[in-house]
Amino acid sequence: MRGTEQFVRELAQENQAFWAGRDVRLDPARPDALLTQIRYRMRQGVYNELRSVELIAAWIPWVPEREIRDLLPRQLDDEHRHYQLLRRRLKELGEDPDTYAPLPEWQALFDWLVACRHRPTVEKLAMFQFAGETQSCEGFETLIRLAQDLDPETAELYRTQILPDEYRHSAIGRQTLLLLADTPERQQQAREACREMNLKVFDAYQAHRARADRGL
After folding, report:
1. Nearest Cα to Cα of residue 93 among 26, 30, 172, 36
2. Tell me, which fold does domain 4-12+34-213 have in CATH?
């Protein structure tokens, strides 16, 4: 059996390779529409953070491994704080933070994640914290870079108040895999869970891109 640390490194590389060129939520080739896209991402972020609070709260009772379970309440608090920060910033910009209507595919993604609470810890934390939060960090890095000249205050909010927490959340996934993915069977569970998550998120991104291209 490959060592656990080697497996985690390889799985991170597989996730990164999956997402190469696939995050289609922002279109830097359209600078005229970029600010509108950023505002949309912020409103979507309000929804995402609130649903993340919901799913973490749903999962905590179903994580029997205490050393992992004890890390989740802080993540829950972080997600709720991000929700409040984004709502406040949108209000400062004269935007209504509650106008975001999630795509059915995006709502279904979170509904599915909440329902995953019954799955083994190695699977669900591979999906959300290891695969999902790591990909979110990369998305936030892109958003910060694109927003820097258009809205530096928002870029700074993401850089200093949100992104560091997201990296810590992804580290929870890594800690989980290092602790639990210690057999070939569990490693295969984690790999399949990451693939499942990546495909579901990508399908939702494609639906978002189609909506954006229609100007909705």
Report:
1. 36
2. Heme Oxygenase; Chain A (1.20.910)
